[in-house]
Design goal:
Layout lengths: L1 H6 L7 H7 L5 H23 L2 H9 L1 H8 L14 H16 L1
């Protein structure tokens, strides 16, 4: 499998494609896994020490933060520009969370 070869930095048959597509590997995946583990452990600790409502509000805060983070360029992702549709949808979601 090419993805596994790219992750473990094994040289596939197509060297040029490997050099362009696998230049950041395995770091983005390891950073993602690390952040995901820390995030999940913090949510479990929040649920253990606080109420389920506070955990719901903490998870609801992820949506606006992720929209903001996706507006920047990342090593493997292009920036997604803000549009009025995005702002309108975000306003609806945040209004619903606040009213809840």
């Amino acid at each position: 499998d090419e993805a596994t070869m790219c992750f473990f930095r094994e040289n596939p048959a197509n060297q040029t494609r490997f050099a362009t597509e696998c230049q950041y590997n395995p770091w983005p995946y390891l950073v993602y896994i690390s952040i995901n583990i820390v995030y999940n452990i913090s949510l479990i600790a929040l649920l253990k020490n606080a109420t389920a409502l506070l955990m719901f509000l903490a998870q609801s805060a992820v949506l606006p933060l992720s929209i903001l983070l996706f507006s920047f360029n990342w090593p493997l992702l292009k920036a997604e520009p803000f549009s009025w549709y995005t702002m309108f949808a975000l306003a609806i979601v945040l209004t619903g969370v606040i009213l809840y």
